[in-house]
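Worked problem 6 (solution included).
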Amino acid sequence: MPDLGKPEILILLIVILVLFGAKRLPGAARSLGQSMRIFKAETKGLRSDEDLLVPPAATQPTLPTTGSPGSMPTAAVPPVVQDQQAPPLHQ
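Solution. The predicted structure is:
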């Protein structure tokens, strides 16, 4: 991407001044500044919330990495017993 020199920046400022007008530029700049402050505060809040929820990596318990998922013990499943005296579904 080409570097912007002084002439290019001056042309951009003139185009912005023509598009928005001298009366609207201070309000637009103020609004942009407020939006940036709100965005910055929200991202800072999200980071602090995340820090509270996630403990540091050194204190997190680790799962064993040896073995394959197929070699893990499984619980016995009881057999399904059907009731012989159940009423018919459709009458």
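Discussion: The chain has a mean pLDDT of 76.
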